[in-house]
């Protein structure tokens, strides 16, 4: 048969078409996640492995940043409060800041950097070395095995890590307050939690869930759609982190606005 | 030269492709490909890099969708299959990737066990181990069972890749550049393995290559792809008696240089 020419002209321009195609692909990727999340088989073993990787292995970094955040924030806030003789408000101020904003945001940013980049790079490397195609042709659903497990693990682990981060930040704050104001643990706890409402805790948990899902889905999408070659692996890792962080800040603004409306 | 395989209905067509077109943007890779693979037959697809050889077998296994044309595999129209039917079809079609595509984080044994665990959940551990042992013995790499892919040579990776495909007992094998980047001795071993797989497992195969030694020793039929379609199909001697410039270049490069 003689070859014929087939032409595919862009509808608007190549860039604009490309943008809308990407948006549509992301939408399809997310909808596929929700379609398949309750379908068998459940890759329990891989899910637990990912939880261990995302959760357990992030603990040292989360501990360090949590402690330093609490400590430094307390140190920076003291002079301002001292001007009004209100250093006794420190535990309350610090705990509100940690629960409402710092713990979810710091945890999310750390996870976006650590987990997002490694997820993006790992899946991208599997993509360019045809390991994902190999799963596909072996009648294994790579989306279930690779994406579902990672996104779920990220979504579930982030609230847990956030709670841990918040706790460690409060410990950091307590250490500084105890050393400077000789406040006892009992008084610190009493003051710290007086002004924390259920809405604050619930909003932070929702934030962490949303951030976890965002990091997981963005990184897996980037990895799954990596272009060919080693350059694509680095690019996927990089874009995973940048896009995750960008979205986290946008989500932060939206959620805070919503919570303030409810409050 | 290849020997005859008994007890196989060689008239039965297992893959039938008609008028296949596939483009990537403005790059028209396949432009009207026709191909028939019969049961027990090995077809070698020859062509220069970038002529769409790998695209062809990726369309066969449903990794890529054609722009036009029909692709029938084991009596099923591949582009029209739903996810479940495509999954079932893929159990019967083995695909060996150019670089093996072994899962980096798993040992050789786990690489072979992985498709089995997912696709034959009723299988006991003992049965699974027995199957893995049998396949590793068939590809001559029983000793690598606990090794990681990073510890294997290029040839070993390709053999394990073939083994991982064989573990699901496919009827059709698709080989993507099985001898690319290997030394001549390892190439001969891979060619022998392809023939052994055909005889022992009664498979029909499409072998993508630009290595004429591989084509000569494994192919019953040779199909030469140029500019998106087959310019010549037939047995090795028929094809290479042609005066077509590409075919002459191939022949001279492989056997003279």
Automatic annotation (TrEMBL), chain A:
It holds the Pfam family MlaE. The chain crosses the membrane at residues 51-73, 93-112, 151-175, 201-224, 236-259. Keywords: Membrane, Transmembrane, Transmembrane helix. It comes from the Bacteria. Signal peptide: none annotated. This is ABC transporter permease. It comes from Niabella pedocola.
From TrEMBL, chain B:
InterPro entries: AAA+_ATPase, ABC_transporter-like_ATP-bd, ABC_transporter-like_CS, P-loop_NTPase. The keyword Phosphoprotein does not apply. GO terms for molecular function: ATP binding. The keyword Transport applies. Residues 15-252 form the ABC transporter domain. Keywords: ATP-binding, Nucleotide-binding, Transport. This is ATP-binding cassette domain-containing protein. It comes from Niabella pedocola.
């Amino acid at each position: 048969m003689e070859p014929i020419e087939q032409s595919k002209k862009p509808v608007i321009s190549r860039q604009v078409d490309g943008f809308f195609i990407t948006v549509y692909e992301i939408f399809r990727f997310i909808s596929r996640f929700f379609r398949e999340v309750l379908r068998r088989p459940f890759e329990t073993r891989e899910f637990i492995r990912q939880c261990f990787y995302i959760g357990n292995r992030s603990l040292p970094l989360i501990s360090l940043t949590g402690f330093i955040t609490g400590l430094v924030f307390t140190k920076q806030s003291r002079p301002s409060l001292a001007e009004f003789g209100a250093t006794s408000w420190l535990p309350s101020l610090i705990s509100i800041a940690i629960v409402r904003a710092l713990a979810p945001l710091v945890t999310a940013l750390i996870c976006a950097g650590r987990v997002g980049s490694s997820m993006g790079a790992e899946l991208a490397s599997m993509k360019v070395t045809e390991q994902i195609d190999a799963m596909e042709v072996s009648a294994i659903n790579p989306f279930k095995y690779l994406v579902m497990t990672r996104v779920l693990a990220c979504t579930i682990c982030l609230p847990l890590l956030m709670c841990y981060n918040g706790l460690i930040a409060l410990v950091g704050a307590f250490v500084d307050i105890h050393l400077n104001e000789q406040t006892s643990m009992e008084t610190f706890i009493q003051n710290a939690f007086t002004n924390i409402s259920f809405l604050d805790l619930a909003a932070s948990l929702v934030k962490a869930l949303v951030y976890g899902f965002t990091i997981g889905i963005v990184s897996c999408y980037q990895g799954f759609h990596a272009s060919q070659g080693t350059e694509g692996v680095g690019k996927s890792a990089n874009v995973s982190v940048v896009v995750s962080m960008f979205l986290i800040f946008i989500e932060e603004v939206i959620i805070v606005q919503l919570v303030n409306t409810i409050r | 030269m290849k020997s005859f395989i008994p007890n196989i209905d060689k008239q039965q067509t297992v893959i039938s492709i008609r008028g296949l077109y596939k483009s990537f943007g403005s790059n028209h890779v396949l432009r009207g490909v026709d191909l028939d693979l019969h049961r027990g037959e090995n077809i070698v697809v020859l062509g220069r890099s970038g002529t769409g050889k790998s695209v062809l077998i990726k369309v066969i296994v449903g990794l890529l969708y054609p722009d036009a044309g029909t692709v029938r595999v084991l009596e099923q129209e591949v582009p029209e299959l739903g996810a479940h039917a495509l999954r079932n079809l893929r159990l019967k079609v083995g695909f060996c990737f150019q670089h093996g595509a072994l899962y980096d984080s798993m040992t050789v044994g786990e690489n072979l066990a992985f498709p089995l665990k997912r696709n034959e959940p009723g299988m006991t551990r003992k049965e699974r181990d027995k199957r893995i042992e049998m396949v590793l013995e068939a590809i001559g790499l029983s000793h690598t069972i606990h090794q990681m892919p990073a510890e294997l040579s290029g040839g070993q990776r390709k053999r394990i890749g073939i083994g991982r495909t064989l573990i699901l007992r496919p009827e059709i094998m698709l080989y993507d550049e099985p001898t690319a980047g290997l030394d001549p001795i390892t190439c001969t071993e891979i060619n022998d393995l392809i023939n052994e797989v055909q005889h022992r497992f009664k498979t029909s195969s499409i072998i993508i290559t630009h290595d004429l030694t591989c084509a000569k020793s494994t192919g019953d039929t040779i199909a030469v792809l140029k500019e998106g379609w087959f310019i010549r199909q037939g047995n090795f001697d028929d094809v290479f008696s042609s005066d077509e410039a590409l075919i002459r270049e191939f022949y001279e490069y492989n056997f003279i240089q």
